[in-house]
Amino acid sequence: MSVSPCPKLPRVTLEQWGVLQAVVDHGGFAQAAEALSRSQSSVSYMIARLQEQVGVPVLAIQGRKAQLTPAGEVLLRRSRQLLGDALKLEELAQRLEQGWEPEVRLVVDEAFPNAKLMEALRRFAPVSRGTRVQLQEVIMSGADEALIEGRADVAVAPHVPPGFLGNKLCSVEFLCVAHCQHPLVEAGRELSLDDLRRELQVVIRDSGVRFKRDSGWLGAEQRWTVTSISTAISTVASGMGFAWLPVPEIEEHLQRGILKPLPLAQGAHKHANLFLILASPDLAGPAARALAEIIEKVAVGV
Q: Hey, which CATH number is domain 14-97, 1.10.10.10, 3.40.50.150, 3.30.10.20, 1.10.3720.10?
């Protein structure tokens, strides 16, 4: 019977990489020691041992401040990924011990039809085994930021940010509309972009901070910016301005004749793809997987 060789273990510990990160993030040895509740001498010793073990200097002292060397910048960047993966591994172990996760963080772009979102949550409730759902509704890059910053377990987003994998969930149609008595509707003719430029456009602000995007036509000289699709619908339905709005959310207004599609020469209809994204497919717990599966089924009408 052959015996597998023992795996080679790293000489530098995760703790040492964490201390290096603290020195860089907090601006020095003394600040890192305070943040980590350690003595400054122990922080200095761990950094010295780390540099000895990796064989290259990672920090250079300039005046009273420690600066990363070029090699240190590369190693620090990789160590952040390493520590992040280690923390996710521990989270997975806790989830396996506890069974289903105590909480799933769901981030959904507001373009996803609200009726389908509510149906997915209704189906998830009886199989959730007590798992709480923390729902955050966002606009445009808000889902990207939540994934990148580790604030989402499951996301429905209009983009798949770098470093993540996602499946196309559905396509949502946006229609350019205005109140039935708006001058653009009462013009009774095909409209051009020049016609739109002279009127008030209602646009929806990107809820993200770091990766803000401008989406859609923004050519009107007058623009009012709101923070949600529901507010945009209310604004336009009250007679103020025009906007491109998701058809599933304005169907009732269209059926009742409150809102009317604008007869544009081009661009009256737009489509936005939405993607279902698991933040960590390999480490996702059973509750996150179950919720994602239900959302996918509801989106395709199963």
A: 1.10.10.10
Three-state DSSP at 85 gives helix
Please tell me the distance from the alpha carbon of residue 35 to that of residue 21, in angstroms, as a whole number: 11
Round to whole Å and give the CA distance between 302 and 299. Answer: 8
Note the maximum CA span of the chain: 87
CATH 1.10.10.10 positions along the chain are: 14-97
Phi, psi of 276 (to 5 degrees): -95, 125
Burial 45-82 (b: 16+ CB within 10 A, else e): ebbeebbeebeeebbeeeeeebebeeebeebbeebbeb
Q: Report pLDDT for 4.
A: 58
Instruction: Of 258, 214, 212, give the one whose Cα is nearest residue 233.
Output: 258
Contact in structure between 202 and 232 (CB atoms under 8 Å): yes
For the stretch 263-283, pLDDT in tens is 998 888 899 999 999 999 888
Rounded Cα gap, residues 66 and 127, in angstroms = 52
